[in-house]
């Protein structure tokens, strides 16, 4: 990792705090944590995780750039595409954005929907990061006219039991903590994270639980072939449950997920035998997920077939 810019003293201290928390949790759990839990802590541990702490993540000063950060084109196009859906559903239709990032998407989308006379009855943002919520609130309060800002609310849980409207997420599914699996002697193993004698995080493969093993077998059946020994990749067995949770009681409308990924046959190509998980740090991508917990974004491509099945 010699070519990655080293974190400054504050950032290094921040990461050390999270590393201490992770080591304590690993110890308490008996010496290992599923990789998905490790990733969840790295991204969302309160006050310390990558998305929960106060660092700049989006844009030139951060670690990566998402489509809404590049300019108004992306959010403007999405707003134009969903405006007829909202108009057809009528004045009660809502808009739910999952994972609002810096608020850039909401700002442009709401301005465009206003111009198209297609404002939703409310614009709800489901955002687990308290820090990002505050940034979104500050940005939208500053950039939207008051009657439009008043439509915006932040959800503490999935949307109410029954609603009609549009559910939207850009680059959220790739940020869901993912299990990693590998095959050994034909059996499915799940990657766990342990700590070595010097306190470093190391990979430890352990027999997968029934849910992950069944999900891997499901993919093998779909592909018509078994994964070879040593093949390593990612899979989200809980994606259907996550989807059910975030849509809440959506009765009529549209769901739009924008992300990077592949249809299943491309995702699990034989040559992609080390998975798709990668880390973003100051606009550089690498594949050491254990480096500098809390300072880098971790992400895995989306299996579009799994999303369609969910
Ligand atoms: C890569 S950022 C994308 C942000 C924004 N959509 C954009 O395109 O700039 C991922 C976002 O998803 C949020 N997120 C992650 N897991 C989530 C979950 N389970 N439910 C809702 N939001 C989530 C993060 O806090 C963050 O706002």
Features of the shown structure:
Rossmann fold, binds S-adenosylmethionine, 5-stranded parallel sheet, alpha/beta, 310 residues, 5-stranded antiparallel sheet
What is the CATH top level name of the largest domain?
Answer: Alpha Beta
Tally of alpha and pi helices: 11
Helical content class: 25-40%
Low-confidence stretches: none
Structure write-up:
The chain is an alpha/beta fold and 310 residues long. It folds into two domains: 9-63 and 176-309, Rossmann fold; 67-170, Rossmann fold, CATH 3.40.50. It has helices at 9-28, 35-44, 67-70, 73-89, 104-115, 130-143, 146-149, 210-223, 239-247, 264-267, 304-309; strands spanning 33-34, 94-98, 123-126, 152-155, 163-170, 180-184, 187-195, 201-207, 232-234, 250-258, 261-262, 278-281, 284-286, 297-299, 302-303. Strands 1, 6, 7, 8 and 9 form a five-stranded antiparallel sheet that branches. It has a five-stranded parallel sheet with strand order 4-3-2-5-10, covered by helices on one side. Strand 12 (278-281) and strand 13 (284-286) form a beta hairpin. Helix 4 (73-89) packs across helix 5 (104-115). The two termini are 37 Å apart. The mean pLDDT is 94. The structure holds S-adenosylmethionine. S-adenosylmethionine (SAM) is lined by residues 51, 58, 66, 68-69, 98-101, 105, 126-129, 132, 170-172, 175-176.
């Amino acid at each position: 990792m010699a070519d990655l810019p080293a974190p400054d003293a504050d950032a290094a201290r921040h990461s050390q705090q999270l590393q201490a928390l992770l080591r304590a949790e690993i110890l308490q759990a008996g010496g290992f944590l599923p990789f998905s839990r490790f990733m969840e802590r790295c991204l969302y541990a309160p006050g310390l995780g990558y998305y929960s702490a106060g660092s700049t993540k989006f844009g030139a000063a951060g670690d990566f750039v998402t489509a809404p950060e590049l300019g108004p084109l992306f959010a403007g196009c999405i707003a134009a595409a969903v405006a007829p859906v909202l108009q057809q559903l009528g004045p009660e239709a809502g808009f739910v954005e999952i994972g609002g990032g810096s608020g850039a998407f909401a700002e442009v989308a709401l301005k465009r929907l206003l111009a198209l006379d297609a404002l939703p009855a409310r614009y709800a943002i489901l955002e687990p990061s308290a820090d990002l919520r505050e940034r979104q609130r500050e940005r939208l309060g500053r950039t939207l006219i008051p009657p439009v800002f008043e439509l915006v609310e932040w959800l503490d849980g999935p949307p109410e039991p029954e609603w009609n409207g549009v559910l939207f997420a850009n680059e959220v599914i790739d940020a869901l903590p993912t299990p990693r699996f590998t095959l050994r002697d034909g059996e499915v193993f799940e990657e766990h994270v342990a700590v070595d004698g010097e306190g470093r995080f190391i990979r430890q493969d352990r027999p997968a639980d029934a849910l992950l093993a069944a999900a891997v077998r499901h993919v093998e059946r779909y592909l018509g072939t078994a994964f070879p020994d040593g093949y390593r990749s990612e899979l989200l067995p809980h994606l259907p449950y996550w989807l059910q949770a975030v849509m809440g009681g959506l009765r009529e409308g549209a769901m739009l997920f924008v992300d990077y990924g592949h249809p299943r046959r491309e995702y699990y190509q034989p040559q992609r035998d080390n998975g798709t998980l990668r880390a973003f740090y100051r606009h550089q991508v690498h594949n050491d997920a254990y480096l500098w917990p809390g300072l880098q974004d971790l992400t895995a491509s989306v299996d579009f077939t799994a999303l369609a099945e969910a």
